[in-house]
Amino acid sequence: MTALAVILWASVGCIGYTYIGYPVLLMLMSSWTQLRSDWRLVSRGATRRVAPATRLPSLAVVVAAHNEERHIAQRLQNLLAQDYPAELLTIYVGSDASDDQTVAIVRSVVDPRVRLVEFMLRRGKSSVVNDLVAISTEEVVVFTDANTSFRPDTLRSLVRHFEQPDVGCVCGELLLVKGDGMGDNVDHIYWRYERMLKFFESRVGALLGANGGVYAMRRTDHRTIPSHAIVDDFWISMAVVEAGRRCVYDPEAVALETIPERIEDEFRRRVRIGAGNYQALVRFVGMLDPRRGPVALAFFSHKFLRWLVPHCMVLALACNTALASSHGYALLLFIQVAFYGSAALGWWWARRGSTPVPLRVPMFFVGMNLGLMIGFFLYLRGRVSPAWRRTPRGQGEPSP
């Protein structure tokens, strides 16, 4: 086998393992964990359900906002309507140099639970979150976004896990919805897949990152993150895991979030997240240490290899093209070209209306990895600012 063939099949193998092999392995590991749990349940009378908290801690809900006049009023109403004792709840809204009506809307909310912190110089979400947590004095901090909506019992569901001393971070269930039921964004396909991985990773004690719109931790476990961090939710939750604490996933702590309606807006968001992923990889490369057990496996398979996939796609196509005249490689090249052609056709169709169902998966897969690849080069060039730009959302808003 030639060097080109080795690179080709190694690249194909990396892609296949990352998106198919790892989920299968994770399910097998989860099944073994579930079998052990069932045995304890039967033999010792143990319980698997997470009991309600015997003592409700004081909560600080942190919302970083930049030009969120469209969402902030409903976000505050939703938080104030939570089934949680009013005397234990404080909502910190940090305005990152908003120049619309965000600050005025927050000030108009007459409720002692709402605290506005106005930052006149725009620095980015990470800096705002750091400052809000530093100001807070509550026991538990809940992180969320301005365009997110909690169900009434979400806060109670999150805090009940902290009665287990080894739990450092709790990740809730984030459901993506379209604002007005229209648009061509198919991000929900990928998100259903990611939710499945988070569920099984949590079961085997290997959950890494949290959903930015709904996660919580003890204030004492929070570590200040660099102001230049782009994917702040991943940095914050990974710092907890790095310290030896457990991150758990609670599918009953539900939040809803509107997604960008236009595929172009989603693509720009993916480029930015891609740059942040490589930034985080450099910071947390030590998580690949095999001594960390399932956490190392999850970081290697779900993060490290996932972020190598766009590079593997390029290598596979280039090597396959060079080997096209060899026996058997012409068919593989045809499959690759047809897949990328379907993605391009799907993108063209999406710009003009709704994408046909058969084209959605190739369009999303290629678009996601293209965004990741562009993000990689932007990261190398240091061209991504920590200050985020609000992504346009649909007219309608999610309701709990």
Polypeptide structure, described:
- This protein has 400 residues and is an alpha/beta fold.
- It has a domain at 59-261: Spore Coat Polysaccharide Biosynthesis Protein SpsA, Chain A.
- The chain is 50% helix and 15% strand.
- The protein is built from eleven helices and eight strands.
- An eight-stranded mixed beta sheet has the order 3-2-1-4-7-6-8-5.
- α1 (3-44) packs across α6, α1 packs antiparallel against α9 (294-322) and α8 packs across α11 (357-381).
- The protein is globular and about 75 Å long.
Name the descriptors.
Spore Coat Polysaccharide Biosynthesis Protein SpsA, Chain A; 400 residues; alpha/beta; disordered C terminus
What is the secondary structure topology, with strand pairs?
Layout: H1 3-44, E1 59-65, H2 72-80, E2 89-96, H3 102-107, E3 114-119, H4 125-135, E4 140-144, E5 148-150, H5 154-159, E6 167-178, H6 187-203, E7 215-218, H7 232-242, E8 246-259, H8 263-283, H9 294-322, H10 329-350, H11 357-381
Parallel strand pairs: 1-2, 1-4, 2-3, 6-8
Antiparallel strand pairs: 4-7, 5-8, 6-7
Helix pairs in contact: 1-6, 1-9, 8-11, 9-11, 10-11
Question: What's a quick, concise take on this entry?
Answer:
With 400 residues, the protein is of the alpha/beta class.
